[in-house]
Task: structure prediction
Amino acid sequence: MKTGYCYDELFLRHTYPGHPESASRLEAIMAGLKESGLHGRLHPIAAAPATQAEIARVHTPSYIDQVKRMAERGGGHLDPDTYVNAHSYDAAVLAAGGLLALTRAVLEGQLDNGFALVRPPGHHAVSDRGMGFCLFNNVAIAARDALARPDVSRVMIVDFDVHHGNGTQDAFADEPDVLFFSTHQYPHYPGSGWLSEIGVGEGEGTVVNVPLPPGTGDSGFSQVLEQVIWPLARRFDPQFMLVSAGFDAHWTDPLAMLGLSLAGYAHIARELVAMAAESCQGRVVFTLEGGYHLQVLAYGVRNAFHALLGEQTVSDPIGPSPHPERPIGPWLAEVMQAHHLDLQ
Result:
């Protein structure tokens, strides 16, 4: 497989002392890729800043200007969790543009697939507001760009961050040409993502939320893949897939408690790559969202690249969760009923 990645050192300049979403995340990822030898096997795609028009497909001009002006003043906070420093606007514009460049490289046949190693993350950002560490919604901007192509009329977005991708859901809730699927701990930040949120108007049925209890673990996620994501993908038949890849559902992560292991994450990545191979000629691009345990993050991304390369290699020096897994049958039954999936 010809697998690409996008990275730029400017992403490191968006950082804030003591904040969990800091430059150290990407530093750990890049060090891990070089140490493993994967870095030299991947194809780099240069990031270029997203244009105002490209960002405005998702965000209001006034909000874009707000972030720019805040950075020009030296920084500030969009909310108590979401910071801006003097470099944040440029980094956020480049992060969106980096995912756009990688998406285009895959859709134009230069690459089979890829992983955008960009930050700040994006899936919580709504049209007129940044939140949850996110400034611009990278994955939504990339999906809009893909749908502007004449050969792409259906895009599937899978979000396996431990927090619900509320911004991405909001962007496409009424649109039938985007299937948005999210697994997330519930109740948890940002408080959205209950299974009754299934889209509105023409988009009804194309928003699929699987709210999960703490302790779901590897076996629960395997059930979600087998019983929900695979049937939905086959029914929707996407032509391109985007993945909001958050590694904060790991059992060691300081911000949540879903109980996944690195081996469990690797299984998710391999299944999504297989899904893309079946439905959309293998065209899938991952983009970085959360994940705040640096060792988990580095190994999680490493394993995802092995999956994108079509390899079975899994590195898990931390091991499985020591805590009992929680059965999720009732949650799954409700999701499947809401979306008319086979309950047998």
The mean pLDDT is 97. Residues 88-107 form the longest helix (20 residues). The chain has one domain: 3-338. Strands lie at 3-6, 43-44, 75-79, 82-85, 113-116, 155-159, 178-185, 207-212, 240-245, 284-288.
